[in-house]
Amino acid sequence: MTMSAQPPTDTGALAKREARLAWGMLLPTITAVSLVVALPLLAIFWISFKPVSLADLRAPEMVVRESLRLRNDTATLDYRVNNSSRDSIISGAAFTDTVPDSVSITGELPEFCRLDAQLLSCDFGDLSGGFRERYRIDVEVSGDPAAAKTAVEDSVPVIVGDADFVLTNLEFSLENFVRVFNASDFWEVLWATSFYTVFGTIGALVAGLFAAMLLDKSFRGQGLLRGLFLFPYVAPVIAVAFTWVTLLDPFSGSANALLVQMGVVDQPINFFGERPQALIMVTVFEIWRYFPLSFLFILARMQSIDSDMYEAADMDGASPFQKFWFLSLPQLLGILSVLFLLRFIWTFNKFDDIFLLTGGNAGTRTLTVSVYEQAFAVSNIGAGAAVAVVIFFCLLIFSWFFFRFISQEEGL
Question: 164's torsion region: left (phi>0), alpha (psi -120 to 50) or beta?
Fold first, then answer.
């Protein structure tokens, strides 16, 4: 028995060439996306290890403003010199300025200045943080005073000086992280963030699942009801947040007035101003506002399930709960897992809802609200960046846990 020889194929080399071509075509996109994601992330990590405040965002520099003052028969050349930083020292600070020919210096110069023809040089040495001085030199103006004044204002002094910029130097410390973790309310903030995220995420998924089950069957007015279900998600957050605060106001809110008149409560409830109902209410708001997203995805998945399984289950006498538990739910686990991942990350990073409803008061201060308060209310950019790094690692741990355990069980 003879066997015909097969010609050798070079599929390995061809596959490698195709892979190189594919990566080469994707390289510009990968590079652009990496820069957009990586650069801000690296900047946050860099700032988190530095004691940076809002005033430190501008590099320290020597600022010189020059003007010609004309008063009656006298004229003075004014120099306003200041250090833009309140803390950093500028070493070797000096400037040179060419005085126009129509202006002649007649008065005494400051001891650190000298005049060479029309070139004025001033050496200040080291300028301390917050330095601010004004120097007046008597001069004589020849010709048109207005033209001389314009010539003085148009001349730009040449400034030199070196300063240590906190954002670019190589000095790092753990001061910001020590401040964050040693804060008296850190664990309370972490608990509020966890409660808000976990229950807000699970609640939105459960509400979306029930809404999808309700609208999975065809009936009259189904399209209108689906549109109404999307309203919380598409409505402007500032409008719906203001509406909730107004309706639940303890003094003028219609919800409290209705509860008191019905005898449900004896006195109005301060839903957004007292613990623990403030945290519960912002979580309920999160569920109400974002369940339509889960509803859309779950409904789309449910409508793609083959109806033959349900017909066979009906013939076998399965109850509605059995059909849901043994037929629908296994088909929905994939989309539910993806939605849980996305909603958890988005809810953990949520800021605007809580800030509009409570401002972070009454036990609703989350980590994202802490970022805002540290960076802008307290003007400590470094501490705010440190809280952002804590948020990043919390989400990184959750993502690792999700892909390590949950996604494998669901086959993702």
Answer: beta
> Can you give the pTM of this predicted structure?
0.78
State pLDDT tens for residues 181-234: 988 889 999 999 999 999 999 999 999 999 998 888 777 877 888 888 899 999
Residue 102, both tokens: 């129509």
CB 272 within 8 A of CB 325: no
pLDDT digits (tens, 9 = 90+) for 260-279: 888 888 888 899 988 889 99
Tell me the domains of the chain and their CATH numbers: 60-163 (2.60.40.290), 176-408 (1.10.3720.10)
Give the span between the Cα atoms of 325 and 168, in whole angstroms.
Answer: 58
- Asked if 124 contacts 81 with a C-beta cutoff of 8 angstroms, the reply is yes
pLDDT at 34 over 60: yes
pLDDT in tens, 48-94: 998 888 777 788 889 999 988 888 778 899 999 999 888 888 999 99
CB atoms within 10 A of CB 382: 23
